[in-house]
Every structure is written in structure tokens, then in C-alpha cells.
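Lecture notes, unit on protein representations.

Consider one protein chain, 174 amino acids long.
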Amino acid sequence: MARTTFDGPVRTLKGFIATGNVMGQAIGAGTVNGATDIDKYQGRAVTIGNTTTVFNLPEIVSDTNTTPNTLSTIGLEYTFLMTANLSGETFTLNAGTAAGRSTADVFQGTAQYVDTGDNSMEGFNAAGADTLTLDGSTRGGLGGSIVYCRAVGANIWLIQCALNGNGTMVTPWS
């Protein structure tokens, strides 16, 4: 179906369910520009294997226009799943100026980390960082690690990370 725009509220008694093969998108090695690939990755489960991958989130635009042609990006959401252990590779998620954008968008939220060796837990607050880096070891990134982020307001990405790693965790934020 082509992109459809509605002017006014949309109601459904049974909800909207997005399904199908395109709801899971794999990313290989390299850099992804989230601004040019919004429709490809936004709202989908993005899977990452054992490759060095950089994902640059789009700029958060808080356009107050209420017409269907608003430029606002508030509400964009991304979910990343490590399907394999990062082993000597990294996954980097950039926001704001770290992603090459003109605004200082930052992360607000936490990274919770489980050491798979002894099942101990630790966590770190994003505290306004604009970069998350997973390394498959003390910064998380083993298979099953999940990163969820959503643009919730001007310059703010809500981020929640459930990370698996080995050893005493060090902060994944910078």
C-alpha cells in the first residue's frame, strides 16, 4: 500500500498490527544514515550480527505544524537486536551532532547490563550522551542485547538498553 495521510484522528476498534517480512530489517557492516532510510528502519526490529555497524539517528524536528505535511520526527522509534555476539566488532548508535546533525539531540535513559559469566547486573544512566557503543564484552553487545530508542521531544531520544556482556561493565555512553 502506498503512503497514506489522514487529516484528523484515526480510530480503530481492533488496532493496527504491522506484520510481514519487512518488519525485521538486517543491517550489515558499515554506516547507516537514519535520515535517508527512515522508512526502511523506523518502527521495525533491526537485527545486527557480528559486524562493525554505525547507525546515525535522524535529527529530531519538533515542527508545530498540524497539517498532514508536518516535518516533525517526534515519535520515530527504533529497536535494535544483536542476533550474534559482537566479537572484535562494535555497534555504535549516534544522535545529534555525533550523527552529523545540526541539533544537539541527546539520549535520556539507561543501559542495564547482565554479566553472562556470573549473572550480576549493573547499569549506567545516559545523562545526555549522544553516542552508545557496544563491543561484545564489557560494554554489552552479546547476542540477545536489545536497544530501544524513541524521539520524545525536542532534542531528546528516550533510550532503554538491555545488554548482555562479559566482565565488569564500563559505561557504553560517550
